[in-house]
Amino acid sequence: MKQIKVLGSGCANCEATLKLIEEQAKAQGIEVQLEKVEDVAAIAAYGVMTTPGVVVDERVVHAGGLPSRDAVNLWLGGGLVGRCAGNANAESCCGG
Q: Domains in the chain, start-ordered, CATH in brackets?
């Protein structure tokens, strides 16, 4: 089970990030332990200066702005979808 933390003060983007991760995990049938972290000191301890931040299995994978659905799918281990699917050079279109 993946442990995912959404770091942020509870702003609209933080809430949308949390909801997006929940929806994608459910759609893929992946069980996750999702935690919302609002404590400023805890967020700073991860080195995240802009929110929302996302931590997957204690590794910061995103900071600032709403993550893309493709990024969430990669974090969940579901692979690439959308414009990257089937791209022989997926690293170049998604930053690898």
A: 2-94 (3.40.30.10)
Task: Output Rg (C-alpha) for the chain, integer angstroms.
Answer: 13
Give pLDDT tens digits for 39-92: 999 999 999 999 999 999 999 999 999 999 999 999 998 654 443 433 333 333
C-alpha distances out from residue 74 to 2, 8, 32, 69, 77, Å: 12, 21, 14, 9, 5
Looking at residue 84, what DSSP letter applies?
A: G
Q: Does residue 33 contact residue 55 with C-beta atoms inside 8 Å? A: no
Mean pLDDT of 5-27: 96
Q: Under a CB-based contact definition with an 8 Å cutoff, are residues 8 and 43 in contact?
A: yes
